[in-house]
Amino acid sequence: MSGNTRNCSSYFDARQRDGEIKGLFFLDKTRRDTEGKRRTDLHFLDLERGEISDVLSTTPPDVPLGSTVVTCGNHVYTIGGNILRGGILRSLNHVFRFDFKHAERGWRKVSSMLYPRGLPEALAAQGKIYVFKGSRDCFGEVYDISGDSWVPLCVPSIAEYSGVSRPVLLDSSRSRILVHFSGDRYRSLYAYYYNDKSWVCLDPKFPYWSLT
């Protein structure tokens, strides 16, 4: 699951293999550092004990606003984001990783995305991170965690005239990602089957898609 750092606090869950959620990792942006700048602290909420951990880590200043946070295994990733330069808001392709098993190492920069993305949609499945939206030059891309490398995501034909709606949802029981496309003429629901790297139209006339 992913959360976006434009919010005051972003939440992403820690699931067991049976799908049960045992806890929530969250980013707290309510505090400021010694210079008065807003900081982003990583915490863990144990749902069984009802306890919130001390600060596990503070994201580095290089992590911009509008980045997206994704968990996969023992790692947390911050992906993309926006930065204001010369009065112009520019997107970034930076990716940072935090390892819970080696918290003393802090956040480390890994391979950057192929294209800059601001406010991207991202989720993790089977050792890979799938990223959508946030770029006019690339529909989507996939990060191979073990190989620390990015490749473009295959593009369905509908993407030529319809954009991706928020949110993009993981349906792990069927090994697929649900993506809603919305345009002036077409509103359709598609599924990307990541094992086969193929797209299937589930409903060509699926009008409504909401974050709530």
UniProtKB/TrEMBL annotation:
Pfam families: Kelch_1. InterPro entries: Kelch-typ_b-propeller, Kelch_1. SUPFAM superfamilies: Kelch motif. It comes from the Eukaryota. This is F-box/kelch-repeat protein. It comes from Gossypium lobatum.
